[in-house]
Write a structure and sequence with these properties.
Radius of gyration: 23 Å
Distance between the termini: 84 Å
Order of helices and strands: HEEEHEHEHEEHEHEEEEEE
CATH architecture of the largest domain: 4-Layer Sandwich
CATH topology of the largest domain: Purple Acid Phosphatase, chain A, domain 2
Helix content: 25-40%
Oligomer: single chain
CATH class of the largest domain: Alpha Beta
Structural class: alpha/beta
Length: 295
């Protein structure tokens, strides 16, 4: 009986097959990079969480809060994109607008460019039409210059809460809004931040979400109803079945979305901008439009 041999592939055909594989892989990688940079990085998603708050005053039932975070103007957020974000925020007609830090980036560009970006960022945010608007500092802001960032934001009509609280009034009722200094490069002080006489719900802004684990061990933790954070960018690049490729320090426990931490609720916004690389994949920029309801 004759012996059958499997057909052999010629060296030339094998070379062509390998070459096609390399070319296809290269084109695929280039396509993903183009999509992540030019398209996905600019596809804004508006999310609509509802937070149920104990003892919420009747006037705040249905109160809507627009939150944006991690703008990172200059690296790599463009002016035109931040203008688009502001237009989206204005279209939502929220009752209050909050910006939870990282208006600019620290590096790889020079500090002078970051200072200039802070001024432009303040000017762009001055177009927010909502009369009730506040911000806090992020780690990049504090690493470059807390003083400069705060100056440019407040000079353009965005009050900054740095270890401070304020009353938000509505039809004779009120709640408290509090903002911590950055927890990486600043000096956060929970006691100084929380209102002295807490007689209404408290919303606390803190840039780094993992600091929530420190907050809930504080003796006054029970006074905080809701914590709003950013910092993580949601990981920027999220792969199916794997999740985020990388998360920053102080943003690894709570990467994005809604959590219960102790007696407080925590919401982590994915942010607008990017750092490190100008890519987003399966992790679109986020504007959060939250609604408060009584628990």
């Amino acid at each position: 009986m004759p012996v059958l041999h499997a057909p052999t592939q010629s060296p030339a055909r094998s070379l062509i097959t390998r070459r096609r594989f390399v070319v296809a892989s290269t084109l695929t990688a280039a396509g993903v990079a183009f999509y992540s940079n030019d398209i996905a990085r600019h596809e804004i998603e508006v999310t609509h969480p509802t937070f149920f708050i104990k003892n919420l005053p009747p006037a705040f039932n249905g109160f809507r809060i627009a939150q944006i975070s991690d703008l990172h103007l200059e690296e790599y957020t463009e002016d035109y994109f931040l203008r688009r974000v502001v237009d989206h925020v204005n279209d939502l007609a929220a009752d209050m607008v909050l910006v939870t830090g990282d208006f600019i980036s620290r590096g790889p560009l020079t500090p002078n460019i970051s200072f200039q970006a802070a001024g432009r960022c303040g000017e762009l945010l001055s177009r927010i039409r909502c009369p009730i608007r506040y911000g806090i500092l992020g780690n990049h802001d504090a690493a470059v210059s807390s003083q400069a960032v705060r100056f440019h934001m407040e000079n353009n009509g965005l009050p900054m809460l740095v270890n401070q609280s304020t009353r938000i009034e509505r039809n004779g009722d009120h709640i408290f809004l509090a903002g911590l200094d950055d927890t990486e490069f600043g000096k956060p002080d929970i006691d100084a931040t929380l209102p002295t006489n807490r007689d209404a719900p408290v919303i606390l802004l803190v840039h780094e979400p993992d600091y929530a684990d420190t907050i809930v061990t504080h003796p006054r933790a029970q006074e905080i109803d809701l914590i709003l954070s950013g910092h993580t960018h949601g990981g920027q690049v999220r792969l199916p079945f794997f999740g985020a490729l990388a998360l920053p320090p102080n943003g690894r426990l709570y990467p994005e979305g809604h959590f219960q931490v102790g007696s407080s609720q925590l919401y982590v916004n994915r942010g607008i901008g990017t750092v490190g690389v100008p890519f987003r994949l399966n992790c679109p920029p986020e504007i959060t439009l939250s609604t408060l309801r009584p628990a």
